[in-house]
């Protein structure tokens, strides 16, 4: 189990000082429990001056235990700071906002907020605040496993804090740098950082800092196989942190205790520590630790042969990882860092350019005074030099703009490709142009469902890795078949695959194409049974098809999903559940559209809610004598 910066969330919460007409201490998350409700009641009464209101907002944004409320008060604080046009207060507000977003595991927006804080510190020429912002930026990079950027910003932040003689925040940053080395398995450097920060925490009498040093050193001992030292250090750290009510690091350290007891083959104790970590993470909404605890429990249950529970916990682990680690967020983090670096470099270039111009003017004046007879020559030389500088600058600028445009176009194309993987092209275009997608009714659409027989019993016997790899193997080939027949994949739910024909562009041959695709899916599934692949499970498949009207649209505001609704969909699902393995079961509506091209066998009726008795048919094969005649008639109808 790998540490994800057990105490990173403390540093940025301990970095903000108010300036001007009042001052508040930068204590971050206090060791004493904040009386939040009285402060909120006082704030809602609105019976105080502007200065008191801003001070109260600062306390709520800095110390509120609820991340969502913490974010709310941070945004209100920033709004008030903008009204006062205070660079220093805006720095505090963006640091508070970044801390709240990081607690909510929204790392992209947290990084954006910290970069805004850094720009305010540069504008205010406040080296200490810039150091604190760099440490917080490094924390986010460390959490998201970007080790190179994490070390870079930790190093610059620590240099600035050391120059300002800020021992407490220097010790915090040093401990977090140790966490970054620990995550890269560089245990010697990690231990050096932990020991040095431990000396500083003892010097300033920081109890919570001492607790983190103990816990982190315990984790190093655990990775080095020194279980007795690891257990002693981590238990002492947990006891101290429980008194301080710091829940996130406790959850991390509990997983390490579970690892230690698992190594000793004490599985009951290992399960107890892992469950305790999961319970604590669920109680306080610690999303990343919910994922890590579920992964630990999945591994422990798998070792004991409890494959059903192992799968349940593994699914919970994967669900969180999928929601946090995605391509768009990682790309946006990189863009934010690039924007900040470019703006920083541009400021440096502007300063150097101004200095160069001043020097040139001074040289010109001195030469004019000392060498009057060379005025014309000097003026000509200076003019030529400036022209060359301007020409060179314009050339470099044009080259930079051209390169930037190419990068922007590539990223734009990448974003469009990702969107087209999620939504149909017409729907994606409507979403981009209008910002939303109107629901549409289609009068004739063919819907197909597939399902693997006895999938639940198979899932209990297979390892989570083999189960996921097998399902991906089948569904990837289904995607290829569906694309071949110009059909639209709607979604997958567990082992169920759903697709539709006749949308988003209405056609007349969707029922024929869907039936042909169903036969290819059956052939692929049967052919897979002949493979002797150790990582691919063999399944029998049921297929159900129905045709009729549906309503289609997009649901969600951040994670878009294209879906369809209506009785047609429900009946198609019933056709699948009442089919048998290796057969294609269709409803009456589909039968009427394909009967001229396919041999079908009537198999009886089924009671469907709100529909009464519906006829069902098995599709047996193509009527070769009439199929192509029928298809030519379909194309002529187009």
Automatic annotation (TrEMBL):
<dbReference type="InterPro" id="IPR011990">
    <property type="entry name" value="TPR-like_helical_dom_sf"/>
</dbReference>
<feature type="domain" description="Guanylate cyclase">
    <location>
        <begin position="446"/>
        <end position="576"/>
    </location>
</feature>
<dbReference type="InterPro" id="IPR019734">
    <property type="entry name" value="TPR_rpt"/>
</dbReference>
<dbReference type="InterPro" id="IPR050401">
    <property type="entry name" value="Cyclic_nucleotide_synthase"/>
</dbReference>
<dbReference type="Pfam" id="PF00211">
    <property type="entry name" value="Guanylate_cyc"/>
</dbReference>
<feature type="transmembrane region" description="Helical">
    <location>
        <begin position="376"/>
        <end position="395"/>
    </location>
</feature>
<keyword id="KW-0472">Membrane</keyword>
<keyword id="KW-0812">Transmembrane</keyword>
<keyword id="KW-0732">Signal</keyword>
<dbReference type="Pfam" id="PF13424">
    <property type="entry name" value="TPR_12"/>
</dbReference>
<dbReference type="InterPro" id="IPR018297">
    <property type="entry name" value="A/G_cyclase_CS"/>
</dbReference>
<comment type="similarity">
    <text>Belongs to the adenylyl cyclase class-4/guanylyl cyclase family.</text>
</comment>
<dbReference type="InterPro" id="IPR029787">
    <property type="entry name" value="Nucleotide_cyclase"/>
</dbReference>
<keyword id="KW-1133">Transmembrane helix</keyword>
<dbReference type="InterPro" id="IPR001054">
    <property type="entry name" value="A/G_cyclase"/>
</dbReference>
<feature type="signal peptide">
    <location>
        <begin position="1"/>
        <end position="19"/>
    </location>
</feature>
<keyword id="KW-0456">Lyase</keyword>
<keyword id="KW-0547">Nucleotide-binding</keyword>
<protein>
    <submittedName>
        <fullName>Adenylate/guanylate cyclase domain-containing protein</fullName>
    </submittedName>
</protein>
């Amino acid at each position: 189990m790998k540490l994800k910066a057990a105490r990173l969330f403390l540093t940025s919460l301990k970095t903000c000082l108010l300036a001007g007409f009042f001052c508040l201490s930068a204590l971050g998350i206090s060791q004493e429990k904040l009386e939040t409700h009285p402060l909120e009641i006082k704030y809602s009464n609105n019976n105080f001056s502007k200065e008191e209101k801003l001070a109260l907002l600062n306390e709520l944004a800095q110390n509120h235990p609820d991340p969502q409320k913490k974010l709310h008060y941070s945004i209100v604080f920033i709004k008030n700071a903008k009204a006062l046009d205070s660079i220093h207060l805006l720095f505090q507000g963006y640091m508070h906002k970044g801390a709240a977003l990081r607690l909510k595991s929204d790392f992209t927006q947290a990084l954006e907020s910290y970069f805004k804080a850094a720009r305010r510190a540069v504008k205010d020429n406040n080296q200490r605040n810039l150091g604190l912002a760099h440490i917080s930026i490094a924390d986010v990079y460390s959490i998201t496993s970007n080790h190179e950027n994490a070390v870079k910003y930790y190093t610059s932040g620590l240099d600035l804090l050391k120059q300002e003689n800020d021992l407490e925040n220097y010790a915090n940053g040093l401990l977090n740098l140790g966490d970054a080395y620990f995550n890269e398995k560089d245990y010697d450097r990690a231990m050096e950082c932990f020991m040095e920060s431990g000396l500083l925490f003892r010097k300033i009498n920081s109890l919570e800092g001492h607790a983190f040093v103990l816990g982190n050193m315990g984790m190093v001992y655990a990775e080095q196989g020194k279980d007795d030292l690891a257990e002693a250090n981590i238990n002492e750290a947990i006891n101290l942190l429980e008194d301080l009510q710091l829940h996130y690091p406790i959850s991390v350290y509990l997983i390490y205790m579970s690892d230690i007891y698992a190594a000793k083959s004490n599985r009951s104790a290992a399960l107890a520590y892992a469950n305790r970590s999961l319970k604590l993470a669920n109680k306080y909404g610690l999303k990343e630790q919910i994922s890590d605890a579920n992964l630990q429990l999945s591994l422990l249950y798998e070792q004991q042969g409890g494959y059903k529970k192992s799968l349940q916990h593994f699914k919970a682990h994967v669900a969180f990882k999928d929601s946090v680690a995605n391509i768009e967020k990682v790309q946006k983090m990189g863009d934010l860092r690039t924007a900040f670096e470019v703006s920083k470099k541009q400021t440096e270039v502007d300063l150097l350019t101004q200095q160069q111009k001043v020097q040139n003017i001074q040289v010109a004046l001195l030469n004019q005074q000392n060498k009057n007879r060379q005025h014309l020559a000097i003026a000509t030389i200076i003019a030529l030099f400036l022209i060359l500088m301007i020409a060179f600058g314009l050339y470099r600028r044009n080259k930079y703009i051209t390169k930037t445009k190419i990068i922007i176009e590539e990223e734009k194309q990448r974003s469009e490709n990702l969107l087209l993987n999620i939504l149909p092209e017409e729907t994606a275009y409507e979403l981009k142009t209008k910002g939303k997608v109107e629901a549409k009714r289609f009068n004739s659409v063919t819907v197909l469902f597939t399902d693997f027989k006895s999938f639940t019993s198979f899932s209990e016997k297979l390892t989570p890795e083999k189960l996921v790899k097998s399902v991906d193997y089948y569904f990837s080939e289904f995607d290829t078949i569906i694309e071949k027949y110009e059909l639209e994949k709607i979604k997958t739910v567990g082992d169920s695959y759903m697709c539709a024909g006749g949308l988003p562009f209405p056609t007349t041959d969707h029922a024929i194409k869907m039936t042909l695709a169903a036969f290819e899916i059956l052939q692929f599934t049967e052919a897979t049974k002949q493979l002797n692949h150790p990582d691919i499970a063999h399944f029998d498949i049921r297929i159900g098809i129905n045709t009729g009207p549906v309503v289609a649209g997009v649901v969600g505001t951040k994670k878009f999903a294209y879906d369809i609704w209506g009785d047609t969909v429900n009946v198609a699902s019933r056709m699948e559940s009442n089919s048998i393995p290796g057969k294609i079961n269709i409803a009456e509506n589909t039968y009427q559209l394909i009967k001229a091209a396919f041999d079908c066998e009537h198999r009886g009726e089924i009671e469907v809610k709100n529909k009464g008795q519906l006829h069902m048919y098995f599709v047996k094969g193509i009527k070769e004598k009439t199929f192509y005649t029928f298809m030519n008639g379909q194309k002529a109808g187009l």
